[in-house]
């Protein structure tokens, strides 16, 4: 919406910037950025009021992903973890996020974002099935981890 968001300096924040500027326009065009984590300030953007409207009462001390995007046209929450050193969407993390956002009744899409293929390779064995992976050095591509859907929620 033209709002300027300031992030703490560092590699992780650079990846979050790439998520907002490159991943989102390519794969969630027109979607609404509701939350953006920041290593220094906990969050750079947190639309608590909008989360409440969408049926997600948030605890600001909860384990939020690095970015949350809401696609109104598809009625999906896109939950993105930016990984430079720890934290891909593994099975445990996927279940935590599903517990936090699942009560809304909306579709959930899980994406792990990496700055480069080298970083992704370190975490490859940990990535959960039925999730997506995006690598910033190849921004036009998304890697789909199995399942019958590409970039969409699964009905549990």
Explain what the structure shows.
The chain has 156 residues and is an alpha/beta fold. Helix content is 26%, strand content 26%. The chain has helices at residues 11-27, 48-53, 91-101, 117-123, and strands at 32-38, 42-46, 67-71, 76-82, 107-114, 131-135, 142-145. The protein has a seven-stranded mixed beta sheet. Strand 5 (107-114), helix 4 and strand 6 form a beta-alpha-beta unit. The longest helix has 17 residues, at 11-27. The N and C termini lie far apart (33 Å). 33% of the residues are buried.
The helix count comes to 4
> Which H/E pattern describes the elements?
HEEHEEHEHEE
Q: For the terminal residues, how far apart are their CA atoms?
A: 33 Å
Mean pLDDT: 86
Strand content: 25-35%
State the helicity in percent bands: 25-40%
Outline the biggest β-sheet.
Answer: 7 strands, mixed
Number of strands: 7
Q: What is the overall silhouette?
A: globular
User: Structural class from helices and strands?
Assistant: alpha/beta
Low confidence ranges? none
């Amino acid at each position: 919406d033209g709002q300027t968001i300031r992030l703490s300096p560092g590699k992780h924040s650079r990846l979050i910037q790439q998520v907002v500027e490159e991943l989102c326009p390519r794969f969630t065009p027109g979607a609404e950025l509701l939350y953006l984590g920041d290593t220094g300030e906990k969050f750079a953007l947190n639309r608590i009021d909008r989360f409440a409207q969408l049926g997600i009462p948030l605890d600001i001390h909860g384990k939020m992903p690095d970015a949350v995007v809401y696609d109104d046209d598809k009625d999906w929450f896109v939950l993105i973890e930016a990984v430079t050193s720890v934290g891909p969407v593994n099975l445990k993390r996927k279940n935590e996020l599903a517990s936090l956002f699942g009560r809304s009744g909306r579709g959930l899409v899980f994406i792990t974002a990496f700055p480069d293929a080298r970083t992704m390779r370190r975490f490859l064995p940990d990535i959960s099935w039925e999730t997506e992976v995006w690598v910033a050095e190849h921004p036009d591509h998304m890697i789909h981890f199995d399942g019958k859907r590409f970039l969409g929620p699964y009905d549990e």
